[in-house]
What we know:
Layout: H1 3-22, H2 27-35, E1 37-41, E2 44-47, H3 48-62, H4 70-104, H5 111-124, H6 130-139, H7 144-164, H8 173-182, E3 188-189, E4 192-201, H9 211-229, H10 240-247, E5 258-263, H11 269-276, E6 287-289, E7 292-302, E8 305-306, H12 309-339, E9 342-344, H13 347-364
Antiparallel strand pairs: 1-2, 1-9, 3-8, 4-5, 4-7, 6-7
Amino acid sequence: MGSAMKNTFRLMCAVAFVVASISAISPAVRADILEQVLVKVNGEIFTKTELETRQVLVLRQKGQPMDLKGEAGAAQLRKALDDITPQIIVDVVDEMLLVQRGKELGYKLSDEQFKTAVDSIKKDNKIETEEQFQAALKQENMTMADLRRNFERQMIRSRVEQNEVLGKVGITEDESRKYYQAHLSEFTAPPAVTLREILVAVPADPKGLNVAQDDAAKAKADVIYARAVGPGGAGSGESFEKLAADLSDAPSRANAGLIGPISAKDLSPEFQKLIEAMKPGDVSQPIRTPRGYQILKLETTTGAQTMTFEQARDQISDHVLGGKRQQEFLKLLVKLRAEASIEFKNADIKKAYEQGLALQKQAAS
């Protein structure tokens, strides 16, 4: 068993232990856990094992390091489960309702659609034989029937959202123009500068400033500056790009010292003031920075630029339609929940569901 599979197995065992421990507060709850049924949605059941599987999946996706040993490990896992379970339960119930709605409308996954999906998986994962594919399924603790059921649920849910939500939402020209006028800042790029740099690094010394090293770096930077600007600073000096590529200690030397474009607001106040006093082609005196002595050449500056309405049209549609679709989708879920028979077999799961709904409502508002 590989290390990833071992970690997943340990996590599943730990999740199962914590869930059982949390649910051991009363004989009635223990009886429900033995049944493995946590909630029924219009007669369709969701079990403890299915919950644990989803919990493990979410924890793996988060990539959150977790020490599962001892009381501290159990407390850490319990806290993580408390954080993720409300959303999981809401998602599960909503998915069941959407899939049930789709089945009422006659949606189902055809053999040809399933074959196309499987072929796509094999191609994307460079799986060449059926034996390799079956081994991959086994590694994920899945059967072909499980895979088909998952695909069908995803397809049905997608079609319900398409027909019940996306197909009912649109945006008018007037709405688009009103949004554009009210949110011009969203379509305005701030002023930006493009620079070239030469850095003469000063090695960090844990004992403090090394005066000799600092003086040597300053002297080297002064020589490079003089070569860059030419006699008398008349701008007839050597190529700044070549000097940067040959002499700079900064990673940007690979690009002849080029950095940017950089938003002016991302520069420190000191650098903003320096750049404001320069014009394209100007080279700054060596500046002492935490990295050493830095020489800058201003390549270009651009002022704030606002997209035209036509240029912003696609972004406007994404913004407005995204909000409308979310509102319409929540309306559909509220309707399906109100019409459904949702029967909880576990008080803790019911409480988690109510917490998840509250969080969803808060996010929507």
